[in-house]
């Protein structure tokens, strides 16, 4: 039961953004590669864009966001060798304790749903996957926040237990933020060794970050793993 990716590169502090180009260079032990997102803000609530990996088009997308800049709908076309090979259309229903994902087909009919129930700390405690209203699987999590663990169980469509194990989870994974509210130090939520991750930022005049360097601490040394640059074009 994984936490969603933290990075939401489209989020900025201003509403007068025309476009945003993000390049993310990842430095692995055996390779280096770059992802690039290009976002176009057609309305306050609609963002169109493209994703490239090493300049190869991987997807095009359309996001709909609410006033809190939370994603409420996404439409994605996935590309392989410059041809569309898959598509994904999802609508999100958000509340304090439940998130529902509705997957739509080409006729805009819901064919699959995922219901995520959360506790008071916003940790997922149950995920129910349904295909045409029939349960495909259920995942549950029982947290022990004092021990930084949770009991993870998976049931199949016949309600048979198919997985039962203890996982590690650091709920208080954010160690520090800067004066602008951006995370500067954290540990990975699912890490047992509590390796420290640090972020350095560079900001523009509107206090939107335009460069972020991610470092991990290994053997008391800082190792750069990712550099993200954002080129923001504001409306005149």
UniProtKB/TrEMBL annotation:
Organism: Flavobacterium aurantiibacter
The name this protein goes by in its record: Uncharacterized protein
